[in-house]
């Protein structure tokens, strides 16, 4: 039930509050949290107090607010990606041992790739794919691998909402990328996010040959082992798919 002047329900305001934390920030001042959530300071103070009482948020002297440990606990306990991450982790570790570079696991959420796991080592190249981070489909190899193996109706709906009809991210350009990804069995984007890196990803397919996840690596732009990288990723993706089918 909506009970605010804006018409937002209590649930709406709580979601806005929790979602206001940026991916790379673990704590905010109460006033900044209110501003980012678009809520009055008094409302923010009241809701933060109620959420802190349930340990979903934590407060500190000076007005600092951070996500609570219990929020992390509940999310991970009921996460729909838990089985996927458990199935993928051994294969991701194997890939990382061979490459000594970043390995990531992503799922499609709306029109974005949502990264649910990442392995990296000291000395790895820069990787903008953070756990619980998102990237638009068209600028990430993970997103292309996921979208290229969806139903045609989903693809057309996605292409129909692209905001750049005449540019590099227009429907025709992205449709060509999706067709190439589907034909080749993997997606690759060079210097799309970082000028010095190369993203390569393959789909994890279910029995209907639709992508339920993507497995990818981020390597230096000078990396020349494409013929070795792709088969290794595809073998690992098939192994993850088998684990999911058996679970």
UniProtKB/TrEMBL annotation:
InterPro entries per the UniProt record, alphabetical: GAF-like_dom_sf (IPR029016), HTH_MetabolicPath_Reg (IPR050707), Tscrpt_reg_IclR_C (IPR014757), Tscrpt_reg_IclR_N (IPR005471), WH-like_DNA-bd_sf (IPR036388), WH_DNA-bd_sf (IPR036390)
GO MF terms, alphabetically ordered: DNA binding
Highest taxon of the lineage: Bacteria
Residues in IclR-ED domain copies: 70-246
This protein's UniProt keywords: DNA-binding, Transcription, Transcription regulation
PROSITE patterns hit by this protein: ICLR_ED (PS51078)
Any Pfam family: HTH_IclR
Coiled coil: none
Identification of the protein by name: DNA-binding IclR family transcriptional regulator
Lineage: Bacteria, Bacillati, Actinomycetota, Actinomycetes, Micrococcales
